[in-house]
Specification:
By secondary structure, chain A is an all-alpha fold. Chain A contains 11 helices and 2 strands. In chain A, 48% of the residues are buried. Chain C is mostly helical and 331 residues long. The longest helix of chain C has 27 residues. Classes of the chains: A mainly alpha (286), B alpha/beta (250), C mainly alpha (331). At the A-C interface, helix 3, helix 4, helix 9 and helix 11 of A face helix 5, helix 11 and helix 13 of C.
């Protein structure tokens, strides 16, 4: 029984991480209609920045705030100076650009930090374990899940309860009209892309101590985040929540129950969803 | 002449609650020239989109040559002999007039997915393509890209591409949209000539054109057919007058 | 442009003749490299039929390349006495089936969603190859020996690279010529027209789903053929053949060379492999260099190197005819 609880909690922690990554991806896609292939690379940058910051300062908390800020700036700059330029060439070019960025970021990371895994210790209270329900469980994994819940709630509140949220949702439906109403839509979009990058950076900082930090981490999480999007439905925040939980638990229990198949389980789920409901569990019919 | 060549039965269409078509009924006989008229926003183009397979009807049925084709995709309908034109020119802008027309001609001759045969080498297809271009007055522009044509020529090309599949039933969506009166008169003469012997359903605004061209007129108003009948009947119908005058008063 | 109507039969013949003469002057190291370039050129050409001609951005082309590569290796290892033709035929058959099955699942989606799904499926293939060690050899890969070529009247030993080079030049070269021919056939033109105006194509009686599936399957089979030659060339195949990196490679080659011409990707594979071979001696970071070229082209020259070459050619021909009236500006 206690083993079951542990794996369940492991699943929750990974689900939290997956949600943090896929929420940013979904947000940017929903708002800007851009599938950001560099999203996972930015997540990786977050992890590496955090590694260096922790190495310098010896503390984890500052990087949790500073890295997302850095990535927000980076994301906003990318949108302003790169993405906006290729927007006129259409969809394909936006995809190619973000793909190229992810490729370059990966190569840069390799040359700056090396092509090998780096481990990091959180230290402090987060680095300890607590006793409950008859098990000893690491605080850090619980912390990840709580972060995801907080971010999810905050996003939902902003989107559906504030004026900013109304502007954002209106920009999706009719950018020209919102622009005509005196709202600077390009600035809004720059902000959205920056926010997506910040969110990925935040996820990267959090992932650092949980998983190892290495140049392949971007690709690994990107595929899982894509599966979350396919299963949950494109552009749906609720779908991202449900699919993250589903895949997090599937990964976790997959290792326990079918160790040989664990890698393939996630893909099997994706293929099943594609056959049965191609638009995803929560997606609107295309 | 088959009496029920194309039957539209109780077609409804709503877009997330907005009812655009509220039970459209009418019948087109074989070789008939049938005009659909109606005030702006009556749902004429939506009706065409449903008949030609672009949209599915929310309910109702379409029978073409006795077969229920409601919800069939556009390519299936095209292969059954139905073709449509667009109100806003919808051709291959980067391609030459010749390539535009040939795209439909070779489809008709079954040269769609062939892996080895080149359309370039098919004399029958190329001859037919040139013949259609000549019929529509585009013979001198065969190798001009569509995007470089004048507006009137673009409209002619739109019809040429529509005719390229050799259809039996032709739906024309405002073929004279944006033309002057003289251009319209010429265009209609041409349409009358090139569609001779085939069934034609046309959406048209110019009333002179409608009354001179059509055998039967259906008036679409607020998503329903107000009345269907010969031009003389329509001219005298009080409901039609009300529908049109009502609009002008607004 | 893709739609150019001139007949380059002469240039094709010249290229083949040049290709036939090259081993007489080059050292073995370079013949090896040239063989690799020809194989990757076919891979890139097949990819460009999707990207340049149909406008479909796939991040999963390596699933076909890898399937072809592994199918050839597995067939050679498990079927004693299998001929060269048999191995190649088996690889093409396998990738055709794969392309048809995967295409059926993915092609209901378009644009970004299609791109995303192809990447996910490529990862699925990689995961399967990693886990299915009994067949793929897992991390160790598979080693094979090139069988001799039976021409009916004579048998040619394939162990020597120059022999294999000629075999590659003829078969892979012929496949490339067929791909070029394909762009002029009814099917090839249908693909092009669909990218131009998909809606109108439907109203002209073309099933866009069928067209896409046929194209996807065809490009998969061609990529599978190049994969089989990849195995035969290196006499070894590892998981990298089916990895996303192999897709990235073909995307870089194709885009850098230029997606708007047929020969762009061939040029791209030349440039890529030469950069890879010479730059990798100088620096480990040569992929970074490739990435920067790529981004530069995406931002400023979306037609790739072939666009640059085209502009230079235009500029040179314009210089030679100064009588041409200057373009009038409409103001």
């Amino acid at each position: 029984m206690s083993e079951f609880i542990v794996f369940f909690l492991h699943g929750l922690a990974y689900a939290g991480l997956l949600f943090l990554v896929s929420a940013g991806l979904t947000l940017v896609f929903g708002m800007m209609n851009v599938l950001n292939f560099a999203h996972a690379a930015m997540y990786m940058l977050g992890a590496y920045f955090s590694y260096t910051l922790v190495a310098v300062t010896g503390r984890f908390w500052p990087s949790l705030i500073l890295c997302p800020v850095l990535l927000f700036v980076a994301g906003a700059l990318v949108e302003r100076f790169l993405l906006r330029r290729v927007h006129v060439h259409g969809h394909l070019h936006e995809l190619l650009l973000t793909f190229g960025l992810s490729y370059i970021i990966t190569e840069l990371v390799k040359s700056v930090w090396g092509n090998y895994p780096l481990a990091m210790n959180v230290g402090g209270f987060l680095g300890t374990s607590i006793q409950f329900l008859g098990i000893l469980y690491p605080v850090y994994r619980i912390f990840i899940f709580l972060c995801a819940v907080l971010v999810g709630l905050a996003m939902a509140l902003i989107l559906y309860r504030t004026r900013l949220g109304i502007i954002l949702r209106a920009s999706v439906n009719d950018g020209e009209m919102v622009n005509a109403l005196g709202i600077n839509v390009p600035l809004v979009l720059m902000g959205v892309f920056g926010f997506g990058a910040a969110l990925s950076g935040f996820a990267g900082v959090i992932a650092g101590p949980l998983l190892t930090t290495y140049p392949g981490m971007a690709h690994e999480i990107l595929i899982d985040a894509f599966v979350v999007i396919v299963v949950g439905g494109f552009g749906s925040l609720g779908g991202a929540v449900a699919a993250s939980l589903l895949i997090g638990e599937l990964q976790s229990f997959g290792v326990l129950l079918f160790p040989k198949l664990s890698l393939a389980l996630v893909y099997l789920l994706m293929a099943a969803v594609l056959i049965v409901k191609p638009s995803g569990l929560f997606g609107e019919k295309q | 002449m088959t009496a029920d060549y194309l039957q539209i039965k109780d077609i409804h269409k709503d877009y997330s609650g907005l009812l655009v078509l509220a039970g459209v009924d009418f019948t087109v006989k074989e070789k008939e020239r049938h005009a659909v008229i109606g005030p702006n926003g009556a749902g004429k183009t939506t009706l065409f989109n449903i008949i030609s397979g672009k949209f599915r009807p929310s309910s109702g049925a379409i029978l073409f040559k006795g077969r229920d084709v409601s919800g069939e995709p556009a390519d299936v309908l095209s292969r059954m002999g139905l073709a449509r034109s667009f109100q806003i020119t919808n051709v291959f802008q980067e391609l030459s007039v010749f390539d535009n027309i040939r795209s439909g001609v070779r489809s008709r001759y079954g040269l769609r997915y062939h892996f080895f045969r080149k359309p370039d080498n098919n004399g029958r297809i190329n001859a037919r393509t040139e013949a259609i271009a000549e019929e529509l007055g585009l013979k001198d522009f065969l190798h001009v890209p569509a995007s470089s044509l004048s507006y009137g020529q673009q409209r002619a090309l739109e019809i040429a591409v529509t005719l390229s599949t050799g259809p039996e039933l032709i739906l024309l969506d405002e073929p004279t949209a944006g033309m002057t009166r003289e251009e319209t008169a010429q265009a209609i003469q041409m349409i009358d000539r090139v569609t001779a012997g085939r069934t034609l359903v046309i959406i048209e605004h110019d009333m002179d054109v409608v009354f001179s061209l059509a055998d039967t007129i259906s008036v679409l108003h607020y998503g329903k057919i107000l009345v269907s009948g010969a031009p003389d009947e329509i001219r005298c119908d009080q409901r039609v007058k009300d529908a049109y005058l009502g609009e002008e008063h607004e | 442009m893709i739609l150019q109507k001139q007949a380059p039969h002469l240039s094709i013949a010249t290229l083949f003749a040049l290709g036939a003469l090259v081993p007489l002057v080059l050292r073995q190291y370079h013949v090896n490299m040239l063989t690799e370039i020809i194989i990757f050129a076919l891979y890139a050409v097949s990819y460009n039929l999707l990207l340049g001609y149909a406008g479909l951005l796939s991040f999963g082309h390596a699933m076909f390349f890898g399937t072809g590569a592994f199918a050839a290796a597995v067939a050679l290892l498990h079927i004693p006495g299998l001929s060269l033709w048999g191995a190649i035929g088996f690889a093409v058959a396998m990738t055709t089936v794969t392309g048809f099955a995967v295409g059926g699942l993915l092609l209901r989606h378009k644009g970004s969603y299609f791109a995303l799904l192809t990447l996910a499926f490529n990862s699925l293939f990689y995961a399967v190859a990693t886990k299915w060690q009994t067949v793929t050899g897992g991390d160790d890969g598979l080693s094979v020996t090139r069988p001799a070529l039976n021409l009916g009247f004579a048998t040619v030993k394939m162990a020597a690279i120059s022999n294999f080079y000629y075999f590659t030049l003829v078969i892979v070269g012929a496949a490339m010529v067929f791909c070029w021919y394909f762009t002029r056939t009814a099917m090839g033109q249908t693909v092009l027209l669909m990218r131009e105006n998909e809606e109108r194509m439907k109203f002209l009686g073309y099933s866009t789903n069928i067209s896409r599936l046929i194209l996807f399957t065809f490009t998969g089979a061609v990529a599978g053929l190049s994969g089989a030659f990849y195995t035969l060339h290196f006499q070894f195949v590892s998981l990298s053949a089916v990895s996303v990196d192999m897709t990235t490679t073909v995307l870089l080659m194709t885009f850098v060379g230029g997606t708007r011409t047929f020969w762009g990707p061939i040029l791209g594979s030349f440039v890529y492999i030469i950069i890879q071979n010479y730059l990798s001696d100088i620096t480990d970071r040569w992929p970074l260099f490739m990435g920067l070229i790529f981004i530069f082209l995406v931002l400023l020259v979306p037609g790739g190197l072939s666009q640059i070459i085209g502009s230079i050619r235009d500029w040179l021909t314009r210089k030679r005819t100064p009588d041409e009236p200057a373009a009038e500006k409409a103001s």
